[in-house]
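Support reply, case 0932

Customer input (verbatim):
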Amino acid sequence: MCVLHRHLRALCCLIAALTLSGWAHAWVETSIRSHVVTLDVEPSGAATVSHELILRVRGGPLPGIEIEGVDADALPQPNATVSEVDGDGSSKPPTPLLLERREDGTLRIDVDAKKGLRRGTYLFRFAYRTNLADRDLIHRNGAYVDVRWVGPRLEDGVDSARVIFRLPPAEIAPRLPPVDPDQAALGVTDDGAGTFLANLRRAGDKDELEVVRPHVAKGEPVVWRVQASARAFPAFAPTDAPAQSSSAQPPPPRVKTRLVAVAVLVGVALFYALLVFLKWRSLRQAAELRQAEPRALIPLPGGLRAALSGVLLSAAVGVGARTNLPTLAGVLLVLAMAAATQLGPRLKPEPRSPGRWLPLTEEDAFEPSAGSLPGRLLDAGSLLGFVLFVLLLGGFVAGAVVLFPRSPYHALMLALASAALLPIFCTGRAAELPPDPAQGPVKLLSWLDRRLAGVESLKVVPWARIPEKSSDPDELRLLVMPRRALAGLSAIEVGLEYRSGGGGTLALPWVMVRAQEGSPAYHALPRGVVWTRGRKPEERVAVIRPALPTKRDCLALVRSLAETLTDSEPMRPRTRQPGIKMPMSAGRRASASKPTTVASPAQAM
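Our regenerated output:
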């Protein structure tokens, strides 16, 4: 029994040892031994920042590290490596590194190896590109220029941090900025960042100034600053021309570039705001002609919404061109498009003025109208608007193609900016407006007229409603009458009604039967038909809709009603139908004075 107990205790100790060993593998501790940065500054102000970071790793494995506070426009360069450093100073074959700069200013460095880094001391070598001039880190200071660079924030403090400034050669050697004597006695510079030591080495192609900071605290962003000759940087070099008044001196190139950039952004904002305002004004005018109410995706006044869309698009262009924040630029672009988007107009139910119904000839009734609505230039549904839309879109594509060899990023930004044309040319189109009641039914009614014209037992007449004090019709219907109609039948009319929905205006056909109450025509229809009061006290009206809103179902319904309302007994005396032998208008629809005293058996709905 004692032997069994000893074996059980040994087994438990083995399991505990294995478990503790597994936990130890997940524990990682790092410490920075040294940090050397080489800042290779070009005459244009662009620079290559090369880091050599020695890191001691305890535990492991270490998949990678993160460095906060790198340059805002850092563009990682290839060939980044990490290698283990032995105690004698020799190094082993390097392992590739993967660099990724995040939007929060963090540089993520991943070890391109499955097992990561184990216990030991490692040398990280990586570099990225930046532009000090574009970020206002190079300033003119008399015969010198101040060159600044802000180092990253390291998680651990480091002793003896070094930055080597490799500057363009000049007659005047680079130097550290002068320090106030009182501050120098306290061991601080004019930036309050502590003491810096310098070592100058001059070569034929570069002047190297090595700056040493004895200690960098944990998480401290150190500002490294040197002064170089202004002639080393052409943009800041002094001119030999005689001194002139400040008002007559031309601005430096960098100031001119900024002024041009501001002018371009203001021009983009004004141009897009003008397009949105013109689009809204033309849509409002067209909607008034169709008795509809214009709508926008963002319910703001037209002028305010146009200004907002222009400002948002200009901000998107500025962010996309001057920063590496494509997500923010995309959000601003989407907001600008939302402010410029128009919704489908909604019908306004308004009472119509009195009018009369007049018969027309087929040529007058079904002739297409030559009128056009405002806003064709900004409507991709019209020929002129489509051509303009294609030309503008082609301009964006051509600009992106020209810009692509220089900067694929900015070429892509320009191509995406072309989406701002879609709300202008593809929303608020004339096709989304409610149809003209005098022109919308032409296609359906002319098709029914051709199909019913060959039926000898029917008489088909186009009807138009002419409002008082107007010569243009505001509604078109088709009157169908059996030649041997049942007593009491006044008319069978075919028309269209319009309903507004989320996708626009929907046209639905209907058939109206007018009959005298209690007449044979009244009782000929099924009991399920709902009758309402007509124009006269004794007249009743029934509106019947086809099962499906198609032309063939509408034709079948008209034929079925005409057959039901036809008198099958020819010898029976029938009441004369007053609307059968009406004189037809021989003139155009615009000449409403020709059919003078014709009374219509139909009335407006």
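We compared this against your earlier run and they match. Two observations from our side: DSSP finds twelve helices and 23 strands in the chain. Residues 34 and 54 are 5 Å apart (CA to CA). Please reopen the case if you see a mismatch on your end.
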